[in-house]
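Data card: per-record layout.
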Amino acid sequence: MAIHMSVRLAWHSDGWNGHICKKPCENVYCVGQHSYPGELIAETRDLEFEKAHAGESCAMFPCKVACGLSANAFGKESIQVKVDPPSWWEKEDADSTILTLPPYTACTWCYEAMYKADVFSTVKGKTYDYNKRQRNAEAYFAQFEEGKSLVFYYAGYSNPFSENEEDNYVIVGASRIKKIDDFHYYENTTEQIRADYAGGVIWQKPITSNYPDEGLAIPYWKYMDNEDILNRIVIKPQHRSPFKYGSREVSNDDAIEIISQLINAVDVLIEIRDDTENWEERKGWLNSVLNELWKARGPYPGFASAMINMGLEELVQYYIAITNEQDMKLFRDEVKRLLDGEQDEVFGQSIANLKTIRREYMLKEDEEQELLMSILPRFDLTAEQMGAILSEERSDVSITASLAKILENPYIIFEQYVGMDPDDTIPFYKIDNGIISSPEYGLENLFDVGATERLRAFCVDELNRIAAHSFGKAETILQSVNHRLDRMPEWKQYTFKLKNFKIDRDIFDKALELKEDEEKKLYLYLKWVYEDERQVESIFTMLAERPDISLKMAITKDKFKKKLRNPESKLNETAAKQYEEILDKQADICMQIFSKPICVLSGAAGTGKTTVIKAIVENIERVHGQAAGFLLMAPTGKAAERIKTQTEKKSMTIHSHLASNGWLNKNFTLKRIGGSKGQDVNTIIIDECSMIDLNLFATLLRSINWNSVQRLILVGDPNQLPPIGRGKVFSDTIAWLNEEYPENVGVLTENIRQLVNHVEGNGCGILDLAELFIQEKQSDMSETSTADELKRKKEELFTKIMENGNGDVDKDLAVYFWKEQEDLESLLRDVLIKDMEGITGLTEYSGSDKLWQQAIRKADGSSNPDAIQIISPYKGEFYGTGALNTLMQSEFNPYWSHRYNLDGISFFDKVIQFRNRPKSDMAYAYNQETRAVEQHEVFNGEIGLVLMHPFDVKNKRYNYISTIERFQVAFSNKSRQKLRYNYGREYGKNEKGWNLPEQKVQENLELAYAISVHKSQGSEFDYVYIVIPKRDSHLLSMELLYTAITRAQKKVTVLLQEDIGTLTSLGHIEKSAVRRINSSVFKFEPLPEELLYIQNWYADEKKLATLSEYFVRSKSEVIIANMLVSEEVPFVYEEPLYAPDGTMFLPDFTVKFRGETYYWEHVGRLDIPDYRAHWEKKEKWYEKHFPGKLLTTYEGKDLSIDAMTIIKEHK
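The structure for this 1211-residue chain is written out next.
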């Protein structure tokens, strides 16, 4: 059986064509943490050289291009690459080797094979046996056949498609292997090196493909500014396992799926008339390869795994050597007869322990025997996956079905299986390929192509792909399913219809929930999603319907005010009246929600949510005495630590609570049944509720004994980013309570932080800017003045920004503009240095690194890495966190980062922990109090500074080493002040004298000079710098910008590309991520299909009248918008209008009549003095700069007549 190869490439901006990138500065991915090979390009890249020779052939510059091992995968000239000996060898141990790479050649290594468990050395002082490593590598490459095996080129996580906290591998091309070169060796190696390091072997293995005769490269580079086309041609493998560790084996099933996706991408390229290659010719090759793969796949690709599970491992090598499908079937038949006792050999091979193997097989249940012999071998599964499916503990991989049910419908394997790690998946195609088998195999299909079970599995797959939504429209899902079917071989094709959902409902009902809206349009839910929504709905409704809590003691407003007041606050003296008013309102809210069995406390940063919670907790204790038992939880460890510090009560993460009560499976998925209800508590408080997805919320509610609970308090800010998972439970709950139980919602609107800043003269810019992006305030269909007031504030602040741009707009708000990469880099550097000089008071210092070290210290000299934080919405591109981290590391830690690094991180770098290390997987930290290495928790999002490990400080060892193997991190969290977390290896020993387990940097830490908005959520920083490019992307949302702004406590600096346009567009309602999520916890009201996918309401002049209410702010504007659409008048909504003097306003509608542009303003509440004054100023501005261009309507019962009159007069 032929096997295929994956080869990881470093990202190239022009298609791995053997040339230097045309815009090398913009390719920030090739130096990323997940590039290839490792950190090599980051350490050796000469960017100035690349800029000087941008777009030129690597062949012209032998050994000068850092990415030469990857860049020639589709290059037509030979190039030369220099491979240097490892850095830990002495200089005289060996010389570099120059590899001449022929056209269409890239190098790879088989990292996994090189580090198998059998390569450790038995010789004291040596970690690895390099001869074993080389033998493993040789065995790996020997699997592939030149002229037969395919090669799939892919980019690691360091690519433009890894964004929004989602890491993706990306297929960049495919071909056939032409030649696998021999291993190369370093020049002039010493005898000792040859003995110790397998002759001085170079692990890079040149692989030459048969391109251009066979194969293709997807031209991503041509469409990087066209997100729509990119989304149609990008290939992110569903099954990620074959695309790891540099190079890995790709099975026929995985190859079939990738080739099918390549065909789909080529169809798009043909449709858009791309001329990069002859795509019709490439499609012909892909189709011929597809036929070849189906033939090579054979009828039983999983039979080797089945034999392992039957104890017949020694037969595996004979089976996998068979290339004829008839022989594969004969082999399987002989194995069956062997196990039934009818013969004692298989293809002439005898079996050791045959008697034992037969007995164990006979002892298996009939269903397991049938699955092992007849069903599971049809599927390309690993032996481990097969064993997990057959195990009595199959719930460990989330399979709840019995073996009998799996026999009845094997699609259940795909529908339910969740492996032990993200790469352990069983995608739909692996099961479908075995159920609907190639006619050439002569096997009977397990289902016909139009079976309901097949459609159900297809729908499950589609619903899994729309991870934010609770449900999807059946018609849209069906279109996608039929599109996928159209790409399949003819014998697998079928066209499903909506009417299919009316047949065999009992089959659908086992995995899906089908629901119609008022117009009888059908929508589909995953069964568990529907059940989770009903779980949340039933518990919250039950709590809301309970009578108010009876109190044993009286509770008064004054009691709350006493607890809420901070006696040390300067506001008691400097703003006594305003402070008293805020305390009154906070106390009113406490009184309002205190006796409610379920309530919400919501508010923006700075409104005092934590102070209110603490006051409520203290008064619960006073009123209920010893009966008051608390359970305080948060979705993240960082948030749980914060609420614990602020309330002085024990808190935990939701996952810790669920784990301790048996609600987590071994694969870390959440159980639906089987956990315990936990200890009885009186009061449950959950913080940061906006971050909790539907599944986590529902499981949490299942884990609690509600008979013992008096009150549930949900705390959070619904205007922050929605959960990364499915749904928007917190937002839905607030909307439902406001409608049904308004007294159960306490909204903190008065901002104490803003008052303090105002009194102390520190500005109000942070909160003024944040207010413009509060999604709850964006529309006002109740005919109040909210929308008008928000529009006025927006125009006033944006005008202020235009007048004071490239500097301070307020004492706590600055806005700067940049155009190109160099502008951003120099601007960010200059602004940071200027601000740090202001923070520290330093005017003379020996370097910016010294200034940085001083700026991130507290007054007592202790480190404070939370003082300064850069935030970007993106990971990639030059304005993303990756490139900005590299820039800042080079600027603020130049000496150490250039001298040493461990996975890109060096001594004294600012870092962030990205992997949760809870009680079940604690990290190793040195405790300065106990003077011992202990295990402690640390959570995703915690920020710290890297320190030298004491082993390397001793005798100044750092002066003599060439590489670092370990370091420590001091995290800023208050509870970790005495802990120094260890990373790397050989950092300490256990009580037996053995080295403690390696803590890989790459699996735990990232640089944190710049972090993503998601990573920043739940944290606060003194000074925040937000980088916003002029890019229309689904990643940019109103909530994202609001979250970023409200991370700042003292000052926020916004760095905008070109102009204020991105800020104004993010204030549009369609940019709210929360409002574009289909969920139905309390109400089933599907959003219009177009709303879910449109980027701009009026993009490409495609205006959708039915969507007006989702895009404008008031009922009056809906009327006007619908009229403009019906009369076919081109318009845009709230587009910035700049006057020649640089001032700016936002017309409600910019319209065109007879080719002339006009500005339509709908005037609202002139009875409000501030609004009237603003309108009069605006009217004069129009008269001065755009005379005769202003069209005006006024609020009133004649609006429709007045609007139509204007339209008719101007058309």
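Known properties of this structure: The chain has 46 helices and 41 strands. The longest strand covers residues 170-180.

See the next section for split statistics.
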